[in-house]
Amino acid sequence: MKRNHRSAYLLILPYLLFLGVFLIYPILFSVWLTFHDWNIVSTDIPFVGLENYKRLMEDELFFTSLWNTVRFILINIPLQIVLALLLAVALNQPIKGRGFFRGAYFLPVVTSGVVISFLWAWMLSTDGGIINEVLGRIGIPPVPWLTSETWAIPSLAWVAAWKNLGYYVVIFLAGLQGIPKNLYEAARMDGASPVQNFFRITLPMLNPAMLLVVILSTINGFQLFTEPFIMTGGGPANSSLSVVMYIYKNAFQSLDMGYAATIGLVLALIILTVSLLQKRFLERDTYY
């Protein structure tokens, strides 16, 4: 019996080592770092207590980046959910070429975010961008999609939604295919219309998938980095600076690792809190 126990421990040892080295240790080190000042190149790491947290509470640029991220999420999540749900419902129908369209919508998900960001930066360019060229042909003047404080965040939200759309379509498709067909048959016998079926059967039964999409979208939204880093550089006037981009600037441009770790820890706590609140208020039991 003891020999079996030793064998089991030996089998899980590689995973435990991986977990400790690449997950537990970095988390503990990051928390420890929030109480210290480190420029990443020095071996001297002085203890500063709560100075990093005090600095964070007085940092207007941090709150600007947090508000920019929240604005992005408020635009991005509804846009992703509506488009993904509509496409999932359409692709769940017996239409010709359904397999092709499913693959086509998922292609941006597996494409490099850097490539997509460069592509959309060219398309949204004020001078020579294909989108403004099309708008110009119908008499609409060029729109400063990436150089305007008004349009920068909505433009980034659209690009991120377009890239991640296929992932959420797959989740909704899985949810749709798990809804029992007899519910629709019973509703049809009662004279329910397709619209009534959607709001009284489809949406309630999709609650688990909807909750998953909302939480994943929120987590991805708070981790916004690639699009603003490549497409706007956080501008104009820090109007598209995200929290993760601000962490990057503090860590690798200012070499202020202690403060960057503090922002990262606070961001993680914000994400955890928001996710738990979403689960608390959006989760519903479904019975059939």
Walk me through the structure.
This protein has 288 residues and is an all-alpha fold. α3 crosses α7, α7 runs antiparallel to α10 and α12 packs antiparallel against α13. The radius of gyration is 24 Å and the shape is globular. The model has no long low-confidence stretch (mean pLDDT 89). The chain has 13 helices and no strands.
SS class: mainly alpha
Distance between the termini: 45 Å
Counting DSSP E segments of at least 2 residues, the number of strands comes to: 0
Low-confidence stretches: none
- Reading the helices and strands in chain order gives HHHHHHHHHHHHH
Features:
288 residues, mainly alpha, 13 helices, globular
Summarize the structure.
The chain is mainly alpha-helical. It is built from 13 helices and no strands.
Write the layout of secondary structure elements.
Layout: H1 2-33, H2 51-57, H3 60-91, H4 98-106, H5 113-123, H6 130-137, H7 152-177, H8 181-189, H9 194-205, H10 207-222, H11 226-231, H12 243-253, H13 257-282
Helix pairs in contact: 2-13, 3-7, 3-10, 4-7, 7-10, 10-13, 12-13
